[in-house]
Amino acid sequence: MKKTLKNFILVIMLVFSFASITSNIFNTSVVVSAKSNVSISAKKLTLLVGKKKRLRIQGTRKKIKWSSSKKSVAIVNAKGTVTAKKEGKATIIAKVGRKKYKCVVTVKRKHTHTYKRTVVAPTCTSEGYDIYTCNCGNTYKSNYIPKINHIEVVDVAIKPTYTQTGLTEGKHCSVCGKVIVEQKIIPRLTPSEASNVECFIVNSYKTWKPGSSYKEYIEYAVDPVAIEKEDMGNDKFKTTITVNLVVLHKTQNAPNTIKGEWLFISDGHTAGGGMYSVSDVEEGEIRQVKFTNYDMTPGNYRVTFSSYFG
């Protein structure tokens, strides 16, 4: 009985002892050091000669020792203030304990701007100004000049012909292209509008192809150009008339030659005349022809034309 009681007490003691050990194991605190967040405020720096900039070490209260790899270019004091000395590169080093933090400093020579002036003239679309440019790329503008009026250019008039329309005179701006005076279309001439000589009766004529039942022909107009008179003495004159024969239309199988007769008529009587023939003509073509009559006496004349078969 006593032996049983001792064993029971021993078991109870072992249980309490194990519980105490387990409690100590699971309640033990573990301390883990945090990763260092120490850094330098700038790893690269550009300064002009004579300028200063302060660097800082962040994330520590430990003592910092500052130094420069090239004091002739840049120096640094105990507070981390960097002073640029001359053009070049230097590395500023901050030592914290056994760790080093670096900043590469580039020192540039102090630049004095030298500006070149360029004059930009005003136009009808933009104002003018002076622009000043330095070789470093820096620019500025001044002396602005207001916009100017349009620069007018004359669009030459084109006379109409029998085959082409004409244009009135116009104007536009040579800079912006704005139309100032619009050119208007002039219709093609008709034979009556082409005549500038009062004694002419100008009409359109046709040279027919023989045997075509009047279906194949050349249609043309007679456009007088000039009349020249030469005194031959004894109340006699030589008269030369210059005309343009304008080919208005050719049918598909029309002849290639214009043939006809011209006559000077005075008081219902023929005072002279002759035949004319112009070969190898094309539609739209203008051929100039001269007719001369000798031994003409003073008076009023009318010139007529008539066509023959080609």
Rg calc: 56 Å
Q: Could you give me the name of the CATH homologous superfamily of the largest domain?
A: C2 domain
Number of domains: 4
Largest β-sheet summary: 4 strands, mixed
Which CATH top level class of the largest domain fits? Mainly Beta
Q: How many distinct beta strands?
A: 24
Strand order of the largest sheet: 2-9-8-5
The helix/strand order is HEEEEEEEEEEEEEEEEEHEEEEEEE
- At the fold tier of CATH, the topology name of the largest domain is Immunoglobulin-like
Shape: rod-shaped
Q: Roughly what fraction of the amino acids lie in strands?
A: over 45%
Spans where pLDDT lies below 50 across 5 or more residues: 18-34, 191-202
The helix content is under 10%
Alpha plus pi helix count: 2
What class, by secondary structure content?
mainly beta
Average the pLDDT over all residues and give the rounded result: 79
The CATH architecture term of the largest domain is Sandwich
Distance between the termini: 166 Å
Would you mind describing this structure in some detail?
The chain has 310 residues and is mainly β. The chain folds into four domains: 39-108, Immunoglobulin-like, CATH 2.60.40; 115-145, no CATH class; 152-186, no CATH class; 191-307, Immunoglobulin-like. The protein is built from two helices and 24 strands. It has helices at 2-26, 191-194, and strands at 39-40, 44-48, 52-54, 57-58, 64-68, 74-76, 81-84, 88-96, 99-108, 115-120, 128-134, 139-145, 152-155, 166-167, 170-173, 179-181, 185-186, 204-208, 217-233, 236-250, 258-266, 269-278, 286-296, 302-307. The strands form eight sheets. The chain has a four-stranded mixed beta sheet, with no helix packed on it. A hairpin with a 4-residue loop joins strand 11 and strand 12. The radius of gyration is 56 Å and the shape is rod-shaped. The model is unreliable at 18-34 and 191-202 (pLDDT under 50).
